User: What shape does this take?
Amino acid sequence: MAVGVAAVVVMVSMGRGVQKRIMDMIHDMGTNLIVVNAGHITLVGGRERQSAIVTTLRPGDADAIMDHCASVGAVAPETNRKMNARWESENLMTNIIGVTPSAFRIRNIEIEMGRYFDSVENDTAGRVAIVGSVIVEKLFDGEDPVGHQIRIGLAPFEIVGVMKAKGVDANGVDRDDRILIPLNTAMRRLMRINYIQKIHILVANSEQLQRAETEIRQLLRERHRLRDKPDDFTIQNQATLIQTEKESARTLTLLVGSVAAISLLVGGIGILAVMLTACRERRKEIGLRRAIGARRRDIRTQFLLESLIIAILGGVSGAVLGVFFSFLASVIGGWTVVESWDAIVSGLMLSTAVGLIFGIFPASKASALEPIEALRAE
Assistant: This one.
């Protein structure tokens, strides 16, 4: 019983931890957010994958969304490519992301050292860059890189800032292994393209997310002249994403909790075996009690209480063990764990119910013994 309750507590706590971590990642991307991706985005193994390169999404689309969609507060077009970054003798393949200054606010990008680049540097295609902590560690061995020049491809860039560490996002992408440069610089001087991969859109009010999504879809379909054709873009609504992730995490938690609860069934079988053994070994005691006036329900109550005591003691010790192992998982294993009191209470209630259910048969069997037969068996 202790093992079963401990398993339920640990599994549910870890499941809640996974849910919290996913929600933190999503909220960290920015609130009231809509993302327009070029082409069709599908989920493979829980991560986003683009089936093909689509060149129909342009910076002008972002400007049109800002100008014509009343519910939109800000837009941040983006293009990205994996390229080689070099400083002195050190080389690193990393994500080069071209963004406009509005992306810093929309995507909650904070600066640890240095500064942001501004709209003037974006308009003039300035060669400035903001790097992540992985770049600092691998290229500069942890030293302050602000003011140094690195080469991205063949072009020199001055590092003007270092982003605060953010870790891995919900798609498994390391947000610290990236370099941000002005969008115009990326498109004109580095990648030499006229299209973008995505647009991050900040909606003025969370209640207007659905309305904004409808406005954006209609506008882009008109601009891309799609008519009866399917969308050549994918719109991801942050509210829908949050709800989907919550439901997925909740389902996962229920699944692992149910699997862990199977061990409670094993514990119940153990209680059944123990109480049947007790019934057989204590036949003389049962016979004496019945001979001196104990009723059948007294014998039944006694065995049920003993079964419940075993189950409750096992449940309490299992809850303590579950909290302890959850703490160990968070400290030693680095897991995000959320202690769940309802899981602890549920585990105790389940153990009590199992003790009661599996104690009924032994209790009934003990109460059914006739005094003479019980005494004669000794």
